[in-house]
Specification:
This protein is mainly alpha-helical. It folds into 2 domains: 58 residues, no CATH class; 230 residues, no CATH class. It is 61% helix and 6% strand. The chain is built from 13 helices and 4 strands.
Length: 320
């Protein structure tokens, strides 16, 4: 009887060279149900994955079980440090957390205290996510974390308050898009700021075979730019489509008769958008992105050339 082919757990189950494969991968990684997996079950899943890699798994272990555990591990452990990530920083927590935060930002956007509170709350959450899903294994100082957090929070709150002042005499529909503008502006600061160590020290770059050949600041810069783009794209459906629907509902009688429904309806609409936007936008670019050797720092190019390896492209984890 032919031996069943073993799964290659060094990468995802699906082809990461196609958008469809990446989307399937992130649908599993960002599955909100993953957050209900206990710490003990995560440890068991990681143990099974490690045993499978060393070919010591229990007899009768199915490939389906192996892949199920692999995706639990991918959703909860950092791909480079191997550390278990804090719950709210995991990508599987993005949909439930963001649907509440974004829904409230878009419901309570008219008063200054509400704008300040929800923009602060959102940037606090984003700071945790950006730190948790950073690329590389270099620690970040408390001072740097604090200054980055303050910069992003100030940018988000300042943008929201400034735009609210500018559009106060315009259509109410225009005002509904202010939170999105604030979030987009903050992402351009929060992601690079929280990952500034990568810009200073570089991120690990690898050959196609997984051999680490050095650290590159240019790869870090490219990876952070890709993450900023995907984060803004991720926020777009949930913050651009619900305002149009909510404005139509505001013109009707439902909210006039039941004003308490505004926040739940807003949160629900955002949640529906995020269920699809989160994995699809994570999939825009491969997590293990590539960069041409000719685009790397001169010293790294020389190191690769002197090694005698015929390498045109190297790979790095861009983060999420």
């Amino acid at each position: 009887m032919a031996e069943v082919a073993r799964a290659d757990l060094s990468g995802p189950m699906y082809d990461q060279n196609s958008f469809d494969g990446r989307a399937r991968h992130f649908l599993k990684v960002t599955n909100p149900l993953n957050i209900f997996t206990s710490s003990a079950d995560l440890d068991k899943a990681k143990q099974l994955v490690d045993m499978y890699k060393s070919k010591t798994e229990p007899a009768g272990t199915s490939l389906e079980e192996v892949w199920r555990c692999k995706y639990l591990v991918d959703s909860a452990y950092h791909p480079e440090t191997g550390d278990k990530m804090m719950l709210v920083g995991r990508m599987s927590a993005q949909v439930p957390c963001n649907m509440v935060i974004t829904g409230c930002m878009m419901t309570f956007y008219r008063t200054t205290p509400a704008v300040v509170f929800w923009q602060w709350f959102n940037q606090t959450f984003n700071a945790i996510v950006n730190y948790t899903n950073r690329s590389g294994d270099t620690p970040i100082s408390t001072l740097r974390l604090g200054s980055s957090y303050v910069a992003a929070t100030t940018a988000a709150g300042g943008t929201a308050l400034g735009l609210n002042h500018l559009v106060k005499n315009l259509s109410p529909l225009v005002g509904r898009f202010v939170p999105f503008a604030a979030v987009a502006a903050a992402n351009c600061i929060n992601v690079p700021a929280m990952r500034s160590t990568e810009l200073e020290n570089g991120v690990p770059v690898f050959t196609e075979d997984g051999e680490r050949i050095g650290d590159s600041k240019k790869a870090a810069k490219k990876g952070i730019a890709l993450v900023v783009f995907s984060r803004i794209a991720m926020a777009c459906p949930g913050m651009a489509i619900p305002p149009l629907i909510m404005q139509k509902l505001e013109d009707g009688t439902m909210f006039k008769k039941n004003p308490a429904l505004r926040a739940p309806v807003q949160v629900g609409l955002v949640g529906i958008m995020l269920v699809f936007a989160t994995p699809l936008c994570c999939a825009i670019f491969p997590q293990m992105s590539s960069i041409a050797v000719s685009s790397l720092e001169t010293e790294l190019q020389e190191k690769i050339k002197s090694s005698g390896k015929n390498i045109d492209t190297v790979y790095f984890n861009k983060g999420l």
